[in-house]
Give the backbone structure.
Amino acid sequence: MFDADALFHLTNNKEDIELVKEIQQKTNSVILTPNIIEFKRIWEVNHKEDLPSAKDELAVYQSEESPLTTIDVTHPIVAPVAMLSREFNNARIIRKGLCDIITDGERALLVRQQGSLKRPGGIGDVLAGTIATFGQYTYSTADLPEL
């Protein structure tokens, strides 16, 4: 489970990114929970391409679709998250933002449910702890119901 400072550490230590990839390859249990800024930092370590704009994400957020839906991993706002997941040997990524994106690189969920207007520091730690608590169970997006 990597959130906050652990993600920041990865952006400054390329050799540790390789270690995380190895751990995922051996255990299939790596989960990254970056917010949109943390995701951008990790993305920029190995990528020159720009990420979708906030305007692109806002357009998806304001669409009239369900607050929770499956979404193709090639969709412009999902593609970079899915690509990074595949680069980490299909690690699960929960990218927090206006639209939360959950992917294992092969399938993805889009969560458009509005959170609180002010998200205080530590919320990502609570999310990571909650996921780790249920970590004894092995889930993949293949286990998710069709929406």
In short: Strands lie at 31-32, 68-70, 92-95, 100-103, 108-111.
